[in-house]
Amino acid sequence: MKSFESSSSRTASAASTASAVITGIGVVAPNGFGAQNYWQSVLAGWGTIGPITSFDTASYPVVLGGEILDFDAEAHISSRLLPQTDRVTQLSLVAAVEALADAGMAEPELPEFSAGVVTASSAGGFEFGQRELQALWGSGSKYVSAYQSFAWFYAVNSGQISIKHNLRGPSGVLVSDDAGGLDAIAQARRQVRRGSGLLITGAVDGSLCPWGWVAQMASNRLSTSDEPDAAYLPFDQRANGQVLGEGGALLVMENAEVAAARGARAYGEIAGYAATFDPRPGSGGEPGLLRAAQMALHDAGLEPSQIGAVFADASGVADGDRDEVRALVSLFGARGVPVTAPKTMTGRLASGGGPLDVATALLAMRHECIPPTINITRPRWPEALDLVLDTPRPAPGLAAVLVLGRGYGGFNSAIVVRAL
Fold first, then answer.
1. Ramachandran assignment for 168, one of left (phi > 0), alpha (psi -120 to 50 degrees), beta (any other)
2. Does an H or E element contain 29, and which?
3. What are phi and psi of 253, to 5 degrees?
4. Residue 136: its pLDDT value, please?
C-alpha cells in the first residue's frame, strides 16, 4: 500500500515521465477465457467463427459471428448484479477479476483513490437495451426495468468494475468504434504518468443481438458468407467483408516503479501511442493510419527497423485492406516486417479487439512467437505484405510490437508495446 501512496505524491515532472507497464491480463474471447487458455488456442489456430446461436438469423443476410459459447453468468456474477447488467458488462466483470488475479492483486491491496478504470465501448449494453425496448412497446412503460437508465450506457462497464473493486481514482470511457480500446489504454497511460498507481483498462465489447445486428449491417461492411472459414479474409483475394464477434481484454496497468516495488512481473510497457482521423470522404486526402503509426513510433522513441511485428487492423474490406498495406509498405518497406491478424479466429470484437491484440502482442513477446492469421489461402499482396499464415512463427528476441486499430467513421489508433 505504501508504494501506491508514494506514487501519488511524486512531483508532476517525475510523474509525467513514468513508464506504464502491464502486470495483469484478463481475456474473455470466443476462443478462450484467461490469458493462458486464450494463448494456447491462438497458437493452435482455433477458429471460432460460426452460425449465430443467440438469436434467429434466418431473416438476415448476415448469419455468422464470433460468439462466446457456454458462458454461465450465474457462476460468476452475483444474483444482485445479474438483473442490472448487460452481457458485455458481465463479461467485463469477469475479465477484470482475471486481470487483477493475474497481476497478483488481492482486493485489500487496491488503492482506493489512486486506482481507476478506463474502458472503451462501441455500443454500450445493446442487448439489455433491446430487451427493455421490447418490453416498452410490447407491454408498456411499467414493464421497463429501472436499470435501463444505466445498463445500456457506454460507461457502464467502467462504472460496474469501479464499484465492485472500490476504485475511485481517475476513470472514464472512450467511444471510437474499433479504435476505442487502444484509445482507452492510452488514456490509462496518461493517468499513470500523472501519478495514478493503477488502472484497469481495455475493453470488452459486442452487440450480438437483432438490434445490434441491424445497426452494424447498415455500414455495408459485413460479410454475407455462410462459410465460417471463408467469411472474414483480410488481405485475401476473396475478402468479402467483416465478421462481428464479442469479447476482448482488460489489462492491469501500473507505474513501473510501483509494480517493481511490490515485486510484480510486468508483461511489457505501453511505450508509444498516437491517433488520427481520416479526411472527409471524397476530399481526396490521404488516410490517417500511416501518420498514426509514425507518431506512435516517435512517441516510443523507436525506428521502424526496431519493430519486430505488426498486429494489423485487418479490415476484411478490400479498400480498407489496401489502405493498410500501403501504410505498412510506406513505413517498413515491402515485406519489411511480419504482420499478423489473430482476430481472424474470433471476428472483429469492436472496441474489445484492440486490447485483445495488445494482450496477444504482450504474450507474443513473452513467448517469442508471432501468432498466425488463419484461413488466408490466396494473399492479395504477397509481394508487399509478410503475412504470418497458418502456423505460429518463432521470433527470438521479439522486443517491440506495433498494434493498429481503425474505427468506422475515420478513427485511426496505434500503440507500441515494448518488452522490458
1. alpha
2. strand 20-29
3. -110, 135
4. 79
What pLDDT band is residue 222 in, cutting at 50, 70 and 90?
A: very high
What 3-state DSSP class applies to 379? strand
C-alpha distances in angstroms, 12 versus 7, 195, 196, 256? 11, 8, 11, 16
How far apart CA 316 and CA 233 sit, in angstroms, is 6
* Residue 205 three-state SS: strand
Q: What is the pTM of this model?
A: 0.94
| Angle of the 180-193 helix axis to the 353-367 helix axis, nearest 10 | 70
pLDDT digits (tens, 9 = 90+) for 2-21: 333 333 333 333 445 679 99
Q: Which residue has the higher pLDDT, 107 or 330?
A: 330
How far is the C-alpha of 166 from the C-alpha of 160, rounded, in Å? 10
In this predicted structure, what is the pLDDT of residue 15? 47
Q: What cell does 66 get?
A: 464470433
Query: What is the rounded end-to-end Cα distance, in angstroms, of the chain?
Result: 24
- H-helix or E-strand spanning residue 138: helix 126-139
Question: Strand 247-255 and strand 20-29: pairing?
Answer: antiparallel
Instruction: List Cβ neighbours of 163 (8 Å cut-off, separation of 6 or more).
Output: none
Q: Quote the CA–CA distance of 349 and 355 in Å, as a whole number.
A: 10
Q: At 114, which amino acid appears? A: S
Cα 10 from chain centroid (whole Å): 31
163-185 per-position pLDDT tens digit? 999 999 999 999 999 999 999 99
Quote the distance between the C-alpha of residue 58 and its chain's center: 30
How many CA within 13 A on the CB side of residue 249? 32
CA distance 155 to 174: 8
The alpha helices in 171-255, defined as continuous H runs, are: 180-193, 210-217
Q: Which amino acid is at 327?
A: A
Q: In sequence order, what DSSP letters do the residues of 259-324 get, joined into one string?
A: HHHTT----EEEEEEEEEEPPPTTS-PPPSHHHHHHHHHHHHT--GGG--EEE-----SHHHHHHH
Phi and psi at 263, nearest 5°, equal 80, 20
The predicted-structure confidence for 335-377, as pLDDT tens digits, reads as follows 999 999 999 999 999 999 999 999 999 999 999 999 999 999 9
CA-CA-CA-CA torsion sign (159, 161, 164, 167): negative
Quote the DSSP letter at residue 389.
B
